[in-house]
Write a structure and sequence with these properties.
This protein is α+β, with helices and mostly antiparallel strands and about 150 residues long. The chain has three helices and six strands; from the N terminus they run E-H-H-H-E-E-E-E-E. Helix content is about 20%, strand content about 35%. A hairpin with a 6-residue loop joins strand 4 and strand 5. The protein is elongated and about 55 Å long. About 30% of the residues are buried. The model has no long low-confidence stretch (mean pLDDT about 95).
């Protein structure tokens, strides 16, 4: 039984995301498989890049964010998926050893006009490193089933 339905979200509500530590081996493995640009694979090459050192692929950071969302609330909710991402901004590079945490803030709530069993929650997700620096910002709507009382 899901623990959270559409009606359980409130405008302005902030949901904390659990911490994830980013290891060098996982960064390089992800990049080798999905984003094999040199600055994601080798410190010596990366030192001459805008990132000033080895950095995680932005897509890896997005995958980490997805896991954080699942662990925080999605898996135990009545989530019905998402139609996509409206805004995605990589603000700072993620380095080996960084500890990431963050939050999801509800910025809009509306019932679906076409599907009465569903509501739409629009979130602003922010992930920060251990220094409190924002590394990624994302906004997107997520569909949630409405509770039985609805």
């Amino acid at each position: 039984m899901p623990k959270r339905y559409f009606e359980d979200f409130t405008l302005g509500q902030t949901l904390p995301l659990p911490e994830r530590q980013v290891g060098r081996p996982e960064m390089i493995a992800f990049a080798a498989e999905f984003d094999p640009q040199p600055f994601h694979l080798d410190e010596r090459v990366a030192a001459t890049d805008l990132t000033s050192g080895l950095s995680a692929s932005g897509w890896h950071v997005c995958a980490l964010l997805m896991r954080m969302l699942c662990d925080a609330y999605l898996v135990e909710s009545a989530c019905m998926g998402s139609p996509g991402i409206e805004t995605l901004k990589w603000r700072r590079p993620v380095r080996p050893g960084d500890r990431l945490t963050g939050s999801s803030t509800v910025i809009e709530l509306r019932r679906s006009a076409k599907r009465p069993e569903m509501g739409i929650v629009r979130f602003r997700h922010e992930v920060v490193n251990q220094a409190g620096e924002t590394v990624v910002l994302m906004e997107n709507p997520i569909f949630f089933r409405r509770g039985a009382a609805a």
